[in-house]
Amino acid sequence: LKLGVLGSGSGSNMQAILDAIDDGSLQAEIVLVLSDNEDAYILERARKVGIAAEVIDCGGYAQRFPEASQLEVAQRLKQAGVEMVCLAGFMRLVKSPLLDAFPQRILNIHPSLLPAYPGLMAWKQAVDDGATESGCTVHYVDAGMDTGPIVLQAKVPVLGDDTADSLHARIQVEEHRIYPEAIRVVAGV
Ligand code: GRF
């Protein structure tokens, strides 16, 4: 199974996918990593292990993902033979044409129990809201924001003294466990 990963940040979820591939629990290969942020550590992580890692130009606007950039991304992924696309901390909203290029083949990981707390900094939303439980969700990507059909979820408690950062750290442990598992479930590998 050839995977393409899109990320804007540290890439710890991509690392978890790589680790699952390395220990034989996921029969897959990451063939291309793309980032809209040339300084993102995800690019360095990929290059360190010899995975092609490229920057995509999306223009300056925070979450906008221009159509031309999406076409370019779809083309690069196809050229690399990608069969499934994993969004891993990718901070832009995917729409058609990228969705149309990979129907039912784009997954995302989100740091809440969707449909609760979609959007940015979901862990902070949970703390600010006084939630006693949160978690993470792997879901299919559709044209909405964090709205596609759910593949897997994991719960974590929100503790009385949690800060946004401490909750995020607890959620990430579960993200790293369920993302490779969700890929396995969806791809049947
Ligand atoms: C994760 O918390 C993920 O749920 C969210 O962005 C963060 C990415 O972290 N979509 P990383 O880049 O995988 O470390």
Pick out its properties:
binds 5-O-phosphono-beta-D-ribofuranosylamine, 35% helix, 6 helices, Phosphoribosylglycinamide formyltransferase, Rossmann fold, alpha/beta, phosphoribosylglycinamide formyltransferase activity, 7 strands
Description of the structure:
The protein is α/β, with parallel strands linked by helices and 189 residues long. The protein has a seven-stranded mixed β-sheet with strand order 3-2-1-4-5-6-7. Strand 4 (84-87), helix 4 and strand 5 (106-110) form a beta-alpha-beta unit. The longest helix has 24 residues, at 164-187. Helix 1 (12-22) packs across helix 6 (164-187) and helix 5 packs across helix 6. It has six helices and seven strands. It has a single domain (2-187), classed as Formyl transferase, N-terminal domain (Rossmann fold, 3-Layer(aba) Sandwich), CATH 3.40.50. The radius of gyration is 16 Å and the shape is globular. Bound molecules: 5-O-phosphono-beta-D-ribofuranosylamine. 5-O-phosphono-beta-D-ribofuranosylamine (GRF) binds next to helix 1, strand 5 and helix 6. 5-O-phosphono-beta-D-ribofuranosylamine binds at residues 7, 9-13, 88-89, 109-111, 136, 172, 175. The active site is at residue 110. The record marks 146 as: Raises pKa of active site His. One of its GO terms (molecular function) is phosphoribosylglycinamide formyltransferase activity. It is an enzyme of class 2 (transferase). It holds the Pfam family Formyl_trans_N.
List strands and helices in order, with pairings.
Blueprint: E1 2-6, H1 12-22, E2 29-35, H2 41-48, E3 52-55, H3 67-79, E4 84-87, H4 98-101, E5 106-110, H5 122-128, E6 133-140, E7 150-157, H6 164-187
Parallel strand pairs: 1-2, 1-4, 2-3, 4-5
Antiparallel strand pairs: 5-6, 6-7
